[in-house]
Design a protein that fits this description.
single chain, 167 residues, alpha/beta, Maf protein
């Protein structure tokens, strides 16, 4: 199955699962530029489970919109598990959603380093549990050009939400 069809199928499954569970999700995206939000909102009925997404491409947006600590960005950079955790937690607090996903990565064609080569993408998923917010993170390396890295990132982010919804 082509990745576009996989994104569509996974988004459809996610919207139906969120709806059945009476849960909502929000997104905080950097390298995916709103693609996760688009994938979800492409599905009829998504308005019941998705209020909004934040595209925080710049560090300034991560700080001002999502509350990422400026020192986190200085110490770790935008593509880091700690940074995306703060993004996901900021999004869930701001939105009041039950789940959030945050993504930041280096899709290319420039920007890679020895420590963070092209294709490095960090993810965080937060889940509201009463007054507590539980967050876990992941770091992946995807092969391919900019579009391929971003597509794989969208798939991984959506699958991560679905995994947490099932748990």
């Amino acid at each position: 199955m082509a990745e576009s069809a996989r994104i569509r199928d996974l988004s459809e499954q996610l919207v139906h699962a969120l709806s059945a569970a009476g849960k909502t999700v929000t997104t905080a995206e950097s390298c995916t530029g709103g693609w996760i939000a688009k994938a979800i909102t492409d599905i009829a009925g998504s308005s019941a489970v998705f209020a909004y997404g934040i595209v925080s491409y710049s560090n300034g947006a991560k700080e001002s919109l999502l509350g990422v600590n400026p020192q986190t960005l200085i110490d770790n950079g935008a593509v880091d598990r700690i940074t995306v955790a703060e993004m996901a937690e900021g999004a869930i607090k701001l939105s009041g959603a039950d789940f959030s996903v945050a993504v930041s990565g280096i899709a290319g064609p420039d920007g890679g380093s020895d420590d963070k080569p092209l294709g490095t993408v960090c993810f965080a998923w937060s889940e509201r549990s009463g007054e507590k917010i539980n967050t876990d993170t992941d770091r992946q390396h995807f092969d391919g050009d900019r579009d391929a890295v971003r597509r794989q990132s969208v798939l991984h982010a959506l699958a991560g939400i679905q995994d947490r919804l099932r748990a």
